[in-house]
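Reviewers of the previous submission asked for a worked example of the structure-prediction workflow described in the proposal, so we include one complete record here. The input consisted solely of the amino acid sequence. No template or homolog information was supplied to the procedure at any stage.
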Amino acid sequence: MKPSKSPDRHTFQKEGYVKRQVEKGESVNEDYLDYFEKIIEDHDSKFDDPKTHVNNMEYDLLTTDWMLEKVRVSESYAQNLYSALCNNDFIKIDVIPILRQNPKKDYWSASWRYAGGIVADMRQEGDYIDWYCSGIRGGMSYDDDIKDGFVPEGMITDEIRNDLQRLGWVIAPGGDWEKFV
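From that input alone, the workflow returned the following structure tokens.
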């Protein structure tokens, strides 16, 4: 299966750059625009090698029909998945880290921006910025009520935890998620 992709992925920074140049009345640096195009090309080909599919939660998320459907149908589910991916470590269920020399090498994790980009790709719309910091929208803190079904970055809801486990992934021991348990 071809991984899900947003046509707008990696456009936020490029469009912002062009807009700023136009507002300042300055010309757009074509080399800089080529740099952005290279980022898009690299992203589009990142899963061409089948080796990149192995032990890669991003690939699993982008190619699993039932998970893609849930993310596309529900904005709050998409945000909850984004939040779960933020700065948490995950490990494939079939990997036994205690038997490895370097168990952390089997972990999968994503920054807040990267997690936002994955969700944008899954929804096939927008860019990372549409999800980035969505858990702290409206000044929400960890102590506030959950608003609009959105949760703070790093929090893993029971539904997301169960779906990731169904996908073959579990939270790795010792992550930031423990503050929510």
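The longest strand covers residues 89-92. We consider this example representative of the routine output the project will generate in years two and three.
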